[in-house]
Amino acid sequence: MSSAKLILLIALLSMAAACGDNLSPSGEDKRPPVVAGSTGAAVGEKAPDFSVSDINGAVVTLSSSLAGRKGAVFYFTMWCPICDSHMSNMRSYVAPLFPEVGFYAVDYVSGSVPDAANAASASGYSGGIFSILADTAHALQNNFQATMGTTVVVDSSGVIRFNEDFRDGLRLKEELNRL
Question: Which class would CATH give 43-177?
Fold first, then answer.
């Protein structure tokens, strides 16, 4: 065996050994169970309260986002093409079916309310189905353990019903139908 092949074989074996048991995952959910009535980011927990500005300068809280609604959807955006695709899907195929649900685009990348307003405007999301939240202190991002594409559904009682990356909107619609 040539030295190059031997080095490659050793490198591959080292990488495989570093994976531990991840080469044969069990599929078991090893996250701790949700404690009834606890507050956190997991499905089944009470959503943490928050206070952030929208791009018009109004303060939005958990209770105000849910007031008079069956629930609220929070989509975490970076204003990239993938986020635009997700938000366009929600704007066209999800939100119109659920007028009793609030839809919020959470901008956690712009450094200020005016920057978030400019990003929303440049991306075509000023006015319309989404209220744009400027999460400049990362309160929502941290509270929901979110990143680009994370979609969170909170029901009218403040319980998280959905917290996962947006895919095609089907699971989101299923969850919204259960509200």
Answer: alpha beta
**Which one is predicted more confidently, 110 or 42?**
110
Tokens of 3: 């030295």
Distance CA 9, CA 14 (A): 9
On the question of pLDDT at 173 being above 60, the answer is yes
The residue with tokens 């075509």 is 124
Q: What 3-state class would DSSP assign to 159?
A: strand
Task: Compute the radius of gyration of the chain from its Cα atoms.
Answer: 20
Which helix (H) or strand (E) covers residue 152, if one does?
A: strand 150-155
pTM for this prediction: 0.82
Structure token pair of residue 141:
């991002």
Helix (H) and strand (E) counts in the chain: 6, 7
DSSP-based three-state secondary structure for 102: strand
Give Cα separations from 97 to 45, 94, 172, 175, 177 (angstroms): 26, 6, 12, 12, 9
Buried/exposed 67-97: b ≥16 CB within 10 Å, e otherwise: eebbbbbbbbbbbeeebbebbebbbeebbee
Q: What is the DSSP letter of 132?
A: E
- Write down the domain spans for the chain: 43-177
